[in-house]
């Protein structure tokens, strides 16, 4: 997607692209940066989706509405997504079970689209009550995992991420950093864990796909006849 | 379980027959599908097109009542479904037309509108104070009007101009806060009006439009208003519809300001419904989803491969998905389900849910069926292979959607319904439409292939042929050769990772992206303009219509008619042709009439008294204006921007999205102002600023530059800016075009190859290719085995052992050294037919008996035409070329299955030869003419000993001779060749080392001390190192010897052949003396030998390398690290040693310390060639891949997929220029970036021949080995610049 986001200057000997792909540390950094920007972008867009209902026909200032959330939200989301995206392939490597299921960019795109769709549904569709909303979203998230991941480690990590993220947002709300308009689950919305779970799976998917490039290089290097 | 299997089988059978059906009748099925799609989409025509333009509906004013809030009843066809409930507001406009009448010619331009505008305050007061007194009490405007609250916080600057906290009543008076005093004190009305106009172009409503209630150009408030009629409206927003109040207001206004000739129809209320407008904030997520969708489609369709037209199939896939969606919407509409969801929003998700996967799976499955089947069967088989998974996926998706349906959330239910119908219709289309398209595509591909293929050859399809060929290859050496040949793919895509910047640029250049984007953008923009602004279009159309219709005459801008029809309301001024004196205007009308008769004097008087009295030279005739009402004035609001009302209401934070307003018929008001009124109102400053407004069309008034309306200035500015930016854009695009597009369009000659044949990188970019005519060095009749060069001369040796010396500059053949002994033992498939003329045969037979003497004669005599070189020998059996690994080494490891045996026995060829001889014996009786087949000279066949019937029994060799003695006795082909100065050193298979004079073609010296074949040679200065098959290493030195001691050159005792003749040693004889011998350097044959920097490196089949010092032949290191036989060694002056082995690994060594620097696994199969530049190691392998490695880190930079059989042909011209061989071409690559620079075709005759060896000479010429001929190519001048 945006591999050339960070293209540092490298010795002239070999092309910058080649050495950046082949050097391990550089690869990690590039992946991290790419994931970070994807996370920031998704955070902005999804945030816009959430606040969209209050947007009037002629908003006085469109640009401000894009950045209507606090300044720290997109960087946090970006960092978190970079972490998750790097954690998934790392975990795969340590568990020794490389993820083989549907490793293609088209599948990743599909996953991202479904994730945005889940967010869209949570923001736009009118549900009768919150339980229904949360249950639907939970089912959708599980469906996302089943369709695009199907690895136990991915599920576990997703649940862990969802739990942690919900906890963090609980703490944030508890300390009054921000608030939800209509909290229904302690201090936050009950669909929050589902969204976090789906987001974790999605970012993990992207991260794994990005890591494929590194894996390919290493595999080519170390293959024996 | 059994049930599942049965089901599975049944499904697969059904799919099979379906596939047969589709592939058999493609056209009818496609037509049927198209009909189905059209039928299912037809209900969509009834649906309103989505858009943002407002929709209108009008009801008669009479008996109008707001519609009920409930569902509509009555005739549903007439009322639109949005016409429910009360409107947001009723809009009542009071359209005022005012003019100063009669007009005096000495009036100023401002007089046209100043006094008419001044009357607005009075009018507004009248409206505001209007009250209806009837039985139910007193009703004032305040009760019925729309009460507005605060403006939006962002609109502070409009605060004084728009009403707040009260009735929504807009009039031009708002510019002066409805304060007449302010108006009177305003020195520049136009400036006041325009001060809030936006500086830029804007489509939405401006403040002027809002307050005037009609478009600016109709208002007449301008300095150049020739009609002198000023129009404006007073716009009233009403909360509820009170017919009695409104009619009373109407009648009162009409009474006060009658409009006698007004013919406005007042019978209908127009309701305008506004669609939801998509703001930018809402657009961003939408755009994001669409971007994701397109990325998904892109990544999906990219996977379609191995078909005739990738784009066609991708298009078919997208069409399948899109039309299935349309079908689902159409079907749902047909069954009474109207889509309430926003189609644009859910559409991407629907596509993602339905997905393109099935289509891709189908394609993949079909193309992976055996290619030699019939197309029908292929389709059927492919379908049935994937049937189970398709059905399973479909069932799963349906299940998931069904679960979604039971969430009982209306939106999700609707989505699911659409998705289900979409899925089913998608399945239908996949099965019928896409499968058929696929079958057509595959049939096309096969046809194309058949046309391309030679009829005799029988390899079927393009792509799988590769795989098959690869699979067949290892088996070839065992099997006796059959005439069946494998056609190679003419050219293959090269897998290459280019740097990103190049990729982007290539992509731009290839797709002409910029052009297309601009085109698409323009089309979309025009479409949007046409689509979203129906009001504008309609206005245009109506104006066209009214201009043409007779009725429309009234609507034309009415020129002032002097002495026209009398306004009925003012009968006394009916003939007031002349302007009256201002002083007397205050008096009654009779006086006015008198004035007209009285003549001109009072006028003159008045002029003298006026502020402009200095211009009193001429009497000005006044004209009386008349206000006309025409069809154009009806529904004046239609001419407003369609954003007018939404914009107005949005200022008060009221959205009109999905709601409607009702616009009541306007109340016409006509105002005639007397000239003295205009004069009274004139602001003192205006009088000094403006000159009199001259109404004569023929004498345009000179206007000062200052009061020129700034509107015009803005227009000019915009125009200038537009022009400038347009020019800039053109320049920019031109530059981009120059940068991005290859510059040599015109170079394409007539004999162009098809694009598909061109070598290109995996992005389809094919760099400019040239066709140059190389110097073709012909003369060899057999495949060339060994090549050597010292820059000036070029020595080649072919399979028959003929050595030719060429001038590397001119390509002339200088010397031919024929094969030392001629023997007709067998013929092989490699012989060309032209060699088989009978006369040489008979000669050969004679010469065979006189073998040795003939030999000598030939050697001594001048170079002869290659009469005897067509004589086949067994050298074809032997894989000889160990030094020039290119080509030979490529084929040698393919023998690996057999090769293992070979290696164990140390290249004991006896068994092989024995077999050959046996075969030959059996076939010897047949005097065969070759059955019209010209044998290809592929590398695969090189090692083959396939026999064709020989013409006569082998004369020179005893057929019954024991095979064991063969290697030493009967045959000696040249296995290695070196050239230095004009001395050729040739190593023969019988261990004999010969030194020839390259110019004269004489044998200068020879050495027969070793018995084992010389596999590799190094010739440095006067030192010759020969590596032998038995692993020993001999160091010779060449000494000039004057004495005729020819006995030293005697062969070994066991050999009865070639006794050195005295004539050999005429002149300054050379002596080749064995200085050192390392009898057991390796215990397996030495396969690679290199020397540089005073070191000699040997690589052997015993998996080790040894480094010797060249001076004293002292072994310095034994390098171990490979797990296979060494096949390639490279050493250069920097003491870096690289070695490649049969294990596919490359090791880099430090020669000084003997330590291994790095170890790379490079290839599947043997490393066939290895070379280094200062920064890279370049290796080629049996897998036909050339890999480029970073020399210091050992990291693979990229790899180049070579064509079959050209794997080992590579050469390095300079540090950043690599040349590789292909089918009849050589390609130049930039090593640093892996960028294909240029492909040079070497004439047309070589198209079928792969370049097997490439030798780079110092003078930048490249020698390619195409079978039996050499091509001498000079590096294109384009590339030389790169160095």
The secondary-structure class of chain B comes to alpha+beta
Name the largest protein-protein interface in this structure.
A-B, 60 and 62 residues
Poorly predicted residue ranges of chain B:
453-497, 546-621, 693-709, 743-766, 822-914, 916-970, 1042-1067
Spans of at least 5 consecutive residues with low confidence of chain A: 1-15, 54-62
Give Rg of chain A in angstroms: 19 Å
Reported for the largest beta sheet of chain A, the result is:
none
Please summarize what this structure is:
With 225 residues, chain A is mainly α.
Structure description:
The complex is a heterodimer of chains A (225) and B (1283). With 225 residues, chain A is an all-alpha fold. Chain A has one domain (28-50, 73-224). Chain A has eight helices and no strands. In chain A, helix 2 (24-51) runs parallel beside helix 5 and helix 4 (73-95) packs across helix 8. Chain A starts with 15 loop residues before the first helix and ends with a helix. The model of chain A is unreliable at 1-15 and 54-62 (pLDDT under 50). Chain B has 1283 residues and is an alpha+beta fold. Residues 453-497, 546-621, 693-709, 743-766, 822-914, 916-970 and 1042-1067 of chain B have low confidence and may be disordered. In chain B, strands 1, 2, 7, 8, 9, 10 and 11 form a seven-stranded mixed β-sheet that branches. In chain B, strands 12-41-40-39-38 form a five-stranded mixed β-sheet, with no helix packed on it. Helices cover 34% and strands 20% of the residues of chain B. The two termini of chain B are 70 Å apart. Classes of the chains: A mainly alpha (225), B alpha+beta (1283). Chains A and B meet through helix 1, helix 2, helix 3, helix 5 and helix 6 of A and helix 10, helix 12, helix 15, helix 23 and strand 37 of B. Chain A: It comes from Taeniopygia guttata (Zebra finch). Chain A: InterPro entries: INSIG_fam. Chain A: This is Insulin-induced gene protein. Chain A: Keywords: Cholesterol metabolism, Endoplasmic reticulum, Lipid metabolism, Lipid-binding, Membrane, Steroid metabolism, Sterol metabolism, Transmembrane, Transmembrane helix. Chain A: The chain crosses the membrane at residues 28-49, 69-88, 131-148, 155-174, 186-206. Chain B: Belongs to the WD repeat SCAP family.
């Amino acid at each position: 997607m945006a591999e050339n986001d960070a293209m540092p200057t490298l010795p002239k000997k070999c092309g910058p692209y080649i050495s950046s792909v082949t050097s391990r540390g550089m690869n990690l950094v590039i992946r991290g940066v790419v994931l970070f920007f994807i996370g920031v972008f998704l955070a902005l867009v999804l945030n816009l989706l959430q606040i969209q209902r209050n947007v009037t026909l002629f908003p006085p200032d469109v640009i401000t509405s894009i950045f209507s959330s606090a300044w720290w939200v997109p960087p946090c989301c970006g960092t978190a997504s970079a972490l998750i995206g790097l954690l998934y392939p790392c975990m795969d490597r340590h568990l020794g079970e490389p993820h083989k299921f549907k490793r293609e960019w088209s599948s990743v795109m599909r996953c991202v689209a479904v994730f945005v769709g889940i967010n869209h549904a949570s923001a736009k569709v009118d549900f009768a009550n919150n339980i229904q909303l949360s249950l639907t979203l939970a089912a959708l998230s599980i469906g996302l995992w089943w369709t695009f991941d199907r690895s136990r480690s991915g599920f576990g990590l997703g649940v862990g991420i969802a739990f942690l993220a919900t906890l963090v947002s609980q703490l944030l709300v508890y300390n009054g950093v921000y608030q939800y308009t209509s909290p229904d689950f302690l201090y936050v919305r009950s669909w929050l864990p589902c969204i976090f779970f789906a987001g974790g799976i999605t970012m993990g998917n992207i991260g794994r796909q990005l890591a494929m490039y590194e894996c390919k290089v290493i595999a080519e290097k170390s293959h024996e006849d | 379980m059994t049930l599942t299997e049965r089901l599975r089988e049944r499904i697969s059978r059904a799919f099979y027959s379906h596939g047969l059906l589709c592939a058999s009748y493609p056209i009818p099925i496609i037509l049927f599908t198209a009909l189905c799609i059209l039928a299912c989409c037809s209900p969509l025509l009834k649906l309103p097109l989505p858009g943002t333009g407002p929709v209108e509906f009008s009801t008669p004013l009479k008996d109008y009542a707001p519609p009920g809030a409930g569902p509509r009843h009555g005739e549903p066809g007439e009322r639109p479904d949005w016409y429910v409930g009360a409107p947001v507001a009723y809009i009542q406009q009071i359209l005022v037309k005012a003019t100063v009448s009669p007009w005096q010619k000495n009036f100023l331009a401002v007089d046209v509108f100043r006094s008419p505008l001044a009357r607005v305050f009075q009018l507004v007061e009248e409206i505001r104070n209007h009250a209806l007194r009837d039985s139910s009490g007193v009703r004032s405007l305040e009760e019925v009007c729309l009460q507005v609250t605060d403006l939006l916080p962002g609109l502070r600057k409009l605060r004084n101009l728009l009403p707040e906290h009260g009735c929504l009543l807009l009039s031009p008076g708002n510019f002066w806060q409805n304060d007449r005093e302010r108006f009177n004190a305003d020195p520049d009305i136009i400036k006041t009006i325009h001060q809030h106009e936006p500086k830029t172009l804007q489509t939405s409503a401006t403040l002027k439009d809002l307050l005037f209630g009609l478009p600016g150009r109709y208002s007449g408030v301008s300095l150049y208003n020739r009609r002198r009629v000023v129009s404006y409206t007073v716009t009233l927003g009403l909360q509820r519809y009170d017919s009695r109040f409104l009619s009373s207001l109407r009648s009162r206004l009409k009474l006060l300001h009658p409009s006698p000739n007004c013919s406005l129809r007042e019978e209908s209320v127009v309701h305008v419904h506004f669609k939801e407008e998509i703001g930018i904030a809402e657009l961003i997520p939408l755009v994001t989803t669409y971007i994701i969708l397109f990325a998904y489609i892109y990544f999906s369709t990219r996977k379609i491969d191995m078909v005739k037209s990738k784009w066609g199939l991708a298009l078919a896939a997208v069409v399948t998905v899109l039309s299935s969606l349309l079908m689902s919407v159409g079907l749902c509409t047909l069954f009474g389900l109207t889509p309430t969801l926003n189609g644009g929003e859910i559409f991407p998700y629907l596509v993602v849910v339905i997905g393109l996967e099935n289509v891709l799976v189908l394609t993949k499955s079909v193309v992976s069926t055996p290619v030699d089947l019939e197309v029908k069967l292929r389709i059927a088989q492919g379908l049935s292979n994937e049937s189970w998974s398709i059905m399973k996926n479909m069932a799963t998706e349906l299940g998931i959607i069904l679960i979604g349906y039971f969430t009982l959330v209306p939106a999700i239910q609707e989505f699911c319904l659409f998705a289900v119908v979409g899925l089913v219709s998608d399945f239908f289309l996949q099965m019928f439409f896409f499968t058929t398209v696929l079958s057509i595509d595959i049939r096309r591909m096969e046809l194309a292939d058949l046309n391309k293929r030679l009829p005799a050859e029988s390899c079927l399809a393009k792509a799988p042929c590769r795989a098959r060929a690869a699979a067949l290859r290892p088996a070839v050496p065992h099997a006796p050769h059959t005439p069946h040949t494998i056609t190679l793919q003419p050219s293959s895509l090269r897998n290459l990772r280019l740097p990103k910047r190049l990729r982007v640029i290539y992509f731009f250049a290839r797709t002409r992206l910029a052009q297309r984007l601009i085109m698409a953008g323009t089309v979309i923009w025009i479409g949007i303009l046409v689509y979203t602004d129906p009001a504008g279009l309609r206005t245009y159309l109506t104006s066209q219509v009214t201009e043409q219709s007779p009725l429309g005459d009234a609507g034309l801008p009415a020129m002032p008619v002097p002495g026209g029809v009398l306004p009925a309301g003012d009968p006394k001024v009916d003939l007031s042709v002349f302007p009256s004196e201002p002083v007397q205007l205050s008096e009654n009308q009779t006086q006015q009439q008198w004035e007209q008769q009285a003549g001109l004097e009072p006028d003159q008087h008045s002029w003298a008294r006026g502020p402009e009295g200095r211009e009193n030279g001429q009497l000005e005739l006044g004209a009386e204006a008349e206000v006309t009402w025409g069809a154009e004035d009806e529904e004046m609001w239609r001419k407003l921007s369609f954003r007018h009302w939404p914009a107005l209401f949005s200022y008060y934070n009221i959205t009109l999205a999905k709601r409607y307003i009702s616009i009541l018929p306007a109340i016409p008001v006509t105002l005639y102002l007397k000239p003295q009124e205009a004069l009274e109102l004139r602001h003192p400053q205006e009088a000094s600023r403006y000159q009199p407004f001259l109404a004569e069309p023929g004498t345009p008034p000179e206007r000062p530059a200052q009061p020129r309306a700034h509107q015009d200035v803005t227009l000019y500015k915009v125009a200038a800016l537009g022009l400038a930016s347009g020019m800039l854009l053109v320049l920019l695009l031109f530059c981009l075009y120059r940068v991005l597009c290859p510059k040599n369009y015109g170079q394409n000659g007539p004999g162009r190859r098809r694009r598909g044949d061109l070598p290109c990188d995996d992005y389809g970019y094919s760099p400019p290719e040239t066709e140059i005519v190389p110097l073709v060095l012909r003369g060899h009749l057999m495949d060339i085995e060994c090549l050597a060069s010292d820059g000036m001369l070029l020595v080649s040796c072919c399979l028959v052992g003929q050595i030719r010396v060429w001038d590397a500059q001119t390509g002339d053949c200088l010397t031919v050294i024929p094969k030392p002994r001629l023997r007709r033992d067998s013929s092989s498939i490699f012989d060309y037919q032209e060699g088989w003329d009978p006369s040489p045969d008979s000669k050969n037979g004679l010469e065979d008996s006189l073998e040795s003497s003939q030999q000598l004669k030939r050697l001594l005599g001048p170079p002869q035409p290659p009469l005897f070189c067509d004589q086949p020998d067994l050298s074809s059996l032997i894989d000889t070329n160990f030094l020039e690994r290119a080509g030979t080494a490529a084929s040698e490891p393919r023998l690996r299955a057999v090769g293992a045996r070979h290696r164990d026995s140390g290249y004991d060829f006896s068994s092989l030869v024995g077999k050959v001889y046996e075969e030959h014996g059996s076939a010897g009786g047949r005097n065969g003419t070759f059955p019209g087949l010209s044998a290809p000279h592929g590398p695969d066949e090189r090692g083959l000993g396939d026999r064709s019937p020989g013409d006569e029994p082998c004369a020179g060799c005893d057929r019954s001779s024991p095979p064991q003695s063969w290697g030493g006795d009967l045959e000696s082909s040249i296995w290695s060749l070196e050239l230095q100065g004009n001395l050729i050193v040739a190593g023969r298979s019988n261990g004999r080392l010969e030194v020839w004079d390259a110019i004269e073609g004489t044998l200068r010296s020879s050495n027969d001390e070793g018995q084992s074949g010389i596999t590799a040679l190094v010739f440095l200065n006067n030192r010759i190192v020969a590596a032998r098959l038995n692993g020993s290493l001999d160091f010779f030195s060449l000494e000039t010897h004057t004495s005729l001691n020819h006995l030293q050159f005697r062969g070994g005792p066991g050999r009865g052949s070639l006794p050195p003749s005295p004539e050999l040693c005429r002149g300054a004889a050379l002596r080749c003396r064995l200085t050192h011998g390392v009898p057991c350097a390796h215990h397996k044959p030495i396969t690679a030998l290199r020397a540089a920097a005073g070191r000699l490196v040997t690589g052997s089949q015993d998996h080790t390398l040894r480094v010797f010092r060249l001076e004293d032949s002292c072994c310095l290191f034994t390098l171990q690290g490979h797990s296979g036989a060494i096949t390639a060694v490279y050493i250069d002056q920097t003491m870096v040693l690289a070695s490649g082995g049969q294990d596919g690994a490359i090791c880099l060594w430090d020669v000084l310390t003997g330590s291994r620097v790095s170890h790379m696994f490079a290839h599947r199969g043997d490393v066939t060639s290895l070379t280094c530049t200062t920064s890279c190691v370049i290796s080629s392998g049996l897998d036909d891949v050339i890999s480029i490695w970073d020399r210091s880190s050992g990291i693979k930079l990229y790899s180049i997929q070579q064509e079959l059989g050209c794997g080992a042909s590579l050469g390095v011209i300079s540090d950043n220029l690599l040349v590789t061989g292909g089918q009849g071409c050589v390609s130049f690559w930039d090593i640093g970036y892996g960028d294909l620079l240029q492909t040079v075709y070497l004439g047309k005759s070589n198209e079928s021949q792969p370049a097997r060896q490439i030798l780079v000479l110092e003078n930048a010429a490249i020698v390619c080995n195409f079978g039996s001929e050499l091509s001498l190519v000079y590096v294109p001048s384009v590339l030389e610049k790169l160095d």
